Amino acid sequence: MNQSIDGLPVDVDPDAYRQAIGRLVTGVTVVTTVADGHDHAMTANAVTSVSLDPVRLLICVEREARFHDAVMSAGVWSVNILDASQRAAAAWLSTRGRPLHSQLDRVPHHRDETGVALLDGALATIVCRTGDTLVSGDHTIVVGDVLSLHIADQPGEALVYFRGRFGSHK
């Protein structure tokens, strides 16, 4: 036991935790923003609806990721809920160390009035303005006020993540 929380012993191996949480099926999204004239994007599955009044959602962003500084400074960002056909985009945008410049060149997208990239073919796109932030462990929880959204007229299968692999769900 190497730590305690409020007097309770904690002995959780991070790799075991990753394996356990990997048993939770999650949807796959790409979060985008624009900072200093550059598009920034990351694949994320830590996205959660927070509230209906006001309409809010949250994302969790690793503090060491370059996306963190971009989303914190930009204040406006989008969540793109991916179709199963967008597996390659999800894989590319989860690649650590990929070039910052032109990272969205291989991902079909368009822009809304805020300037953030919205991925073509997404099941839904949601544009948010940062409302609240909370540092928790090695991540920042970013809560966004939903400014606009678009739902695909004919959604396909959802891209999901389970046990370290991409899959699909009808």
Query: Strand pairing plus helix content: what structural class?
Result: mainly beta
Which stretches of 5+ consecutive residues score pLDDT under 50?
none
Distance between the termini: 43 Å
Residue share in helices? 10-25%
Number of helices: 3
Any overview of this molecule?
The protein has 170 residues and is mainly β. Helices cover 14% and strands 49% of the residues. The strands form four sheets. Strands 5-4-8-11-12-7-6 form a seven-stranded antiparallel sheet. The longest helix has 9 residues, at 66-74. It is globular.
Task: Kindly summarize this structure in a few lines.
The chain has 170 residues and is mainly beta.
Question: How would the blueprint of this fold be written?
Answer:
Layout: E1 3-5, E2 8-10, H1 14-21, E3 26-27, E4 29-35, E5 38-44, E6 47-52, E7 55-62, H2 66-74, E8 76-81, H3 87-92, E9 109-111, E10 117-119, E11 124-136, E12 139-151, E13 158-162, E14 165-169
Antiparallel strand pairs: 1-2, 3-13, 4-5, 4-8, 6-7, 7-12, 8-11, 9-10, 11-12, 13-14
List keywords for this structure.
170 residues; mainly beta; seven-stranded antiparallel beta sheet; three-stranded antiparallel beta sheet; 3 helices; 14% helix; 49% strand; globular
